[in-house]
Write the structure tokens for this entry.
Amino acid sequence: MQDIGTVIGLLVIVTLISVAAKKIAIPYPTLMVVCGLAIGIVPGLPEIHLNPDVALLIFLPPLLYSAAWMTSWPDFRANIRPIGMLAIGLVLATTISVAVVVHTIAPEIPWAVCFVLGALVSPPDAVAATAVTKGLSMPRRVVAILEGESLVNDATGLVA
């Protein structure tokens, strides 16, 4: 039951930050990172413990669903090769690179843990790319590739 209160509280905070980002005309992921850093350095705040299943089942699906609705599927199909290279190839290459670097720096960490860490950090943020490029006048093809890649890269990271 404590998870429900935590989730509702986090959703209220995220909503307030999103509204504030619109009012001051900056991308909301940027403001959320800044606010998260600010909250993180405030001494005396209680630690929030959230079951990872809640993040996977409550937060991720609506974000991906919303991004999927905004994606142009004809543009997605037309750019399937660069999207696949970025979303699958680059995510797997980053996963392997992170695993090798972590194991080189800390050889006591098992390879399996190094690969899990690599898979966790390798997919870029699915929503931030769309939000940040929204105000810029970028070519349609570049936006289609970024949006398509952001939809597929989380799946690659989860599978890895």
